């Protein structure tokens, strides 16, 4: 632990949502203090953090003060404005580093990067206008899905193209933003691997979980996932390959489609991931602590799982079910402290533990 | 959940040490905000709480503002000044209630209360001066242990009397405070039960843990404890009896001596308890969340255990072992964020999980 931060050091976290909140609790458990940078007030992370800088990502003065208050900087989301990172990385270590952000902030760059590594990805092509969209459709076939290259999450900035007739509307949905067309992959189910890489280059992965989405939002993750021993090993090995190639430090989520021809990488997220929430009740060291250990230069937990878990997201009105869920045995509630319930908003999750 | 606090409500916690810290994290997990009342600055609980009132327990104005900021009040230690409680309970519900504090704040009252319930306790007698000490020794025999009636913890305010020669020094150690002499109990080992009682009167207990002390301070708790099925059932039943008799709301720790003649109650603590820290990594709902559920009027977790756990306290210089402990598999670190390491000071604990 030569480069390890001592307990009592301060971890800076960009973003004050539920991921920042659970990172902050994990950091406290290791004796660190935490400092949240988040423009919004009363944000979930601020409830469990030492300090909250409430300022815009364009506020250079606030960014400088934030950097001066912390020993290392990490983040809960990948779409941090480039100008903020340009400044911060001159002041304090930012982990994971810029390469992971550069690759994952742009779907086209990401797909190209993964394909160049020899990994299977969906057929894809860049789309700038009607003409390139036509060429892209010729390359990937239909149905396909048109996505903005940047700033998409939870199904936002996406449009399905089932037949040629859908093309104009899909293009209009992009509102002129650079886009990528992705061909459909014929998969049986989706799994994800939550992998971690330490400052010393060591890698540890949690067991793959099986994900079910609805309306573009993750609903459940079940561990263990339906995978053969060979698929399980492939999933973990390709995750390690990506982590090493990026010289990554921290936790990463890797979403994979399971097909008869093997695993196809859907996308990577350079941060703790919703599909890794099950680790809070299935592992001694969960994904949040694993991430903090990595960015603090501590040894990684081994990822060992001591229970089977089904994680279910609580979205919007699912909050009405909290009284009933609180009375369910073997069920751990994790609520995010968000003041307003909105349709599609992630309000919390439950982990159902099956020994 | 008629009287249940809704998520988003604020839990007030008197005391900002490690127990308040872990209560605060548990409250956040259920979507509550937390407000700590603690005279000390930079206290462990304030690192993970929404608000910290830094004021003395004699500061009526601060107590009033604290009460106005919260929906329910609980505490992490039993020695809260009576005047503060007198004021607070006129303003907001205080849980657990006064009866539990009245009984447990005074060792003589506590022993008498438990004995009156028909439970086995060590032989005891009140001590005010040299004369009553002599009479007490005649009643309990030697060796015995002289303790102040109030404000003792972690072996403080205690003196062993092995032979009559130790008597003057033991009495001097009490510094004139009212005391109690307790006869020795010939026990094979000590166990404790962490029990909880909800606002609706429901009771749930965690599996008994086996405790090892050194220098008057808890070192390890091992779960499961060495107990026969009958002893285990006795331990849980007598805990439920105490909880019901006190009309208790919250988590209580009950320490028991295991003797050939049965279980002898050592002491009760009207709060979450060091010997219940193992529940953080062995149960879906841990003792801290259980306490918050009770004081918030939520349903209790069932106390089910999904792993065997050995909890070890990190005391003083044990902090030097943190780098090595962080590299141990199946080991969960829980550090308290205390700035200064002192001999005998509880700095954190580890839970070693054995599936």
From TrEMBL, chains A, B:
Keyword set, alphabetical order: ATP-binding, Ligase, Nucleotide-binding, Purine biosynthesis
Superkingdom classification of source: Bacteria
GO biological process: 'de novo' IMP biosynthetic process
Residues the record lists as binding ATP: 107, 147, 152-158, 182-185, 190, 213, 266-267
Xref: SUPFAM superfamilies: Glutathione synthetase ATP-binding domain-like, PreATP-grasp domain, Rudiment single hybrid motif
PROSITE patterns in UniProt: ATP_GRASP (PS50975)
InterPro entries, per the entry: ATP-grasp (IPR011761), ATP-grasp_carboxylate-amine (IPR003135), ATP_grasp_subdomain_1 (IPR013815), PreATP-grasp_dom_sf (IPR016185), PurK (IPR005875), PurK_C (IPR040686), PurT/PurK_preATP-grasp (IPR054350), Rudment_hybrid_motif (IPR011054)
Subunit structure: Homodimer.
Protein name: N5-carboxyaminoimidazole ribonucleotide synthase
Originating organism: Roseovarius faecimaris
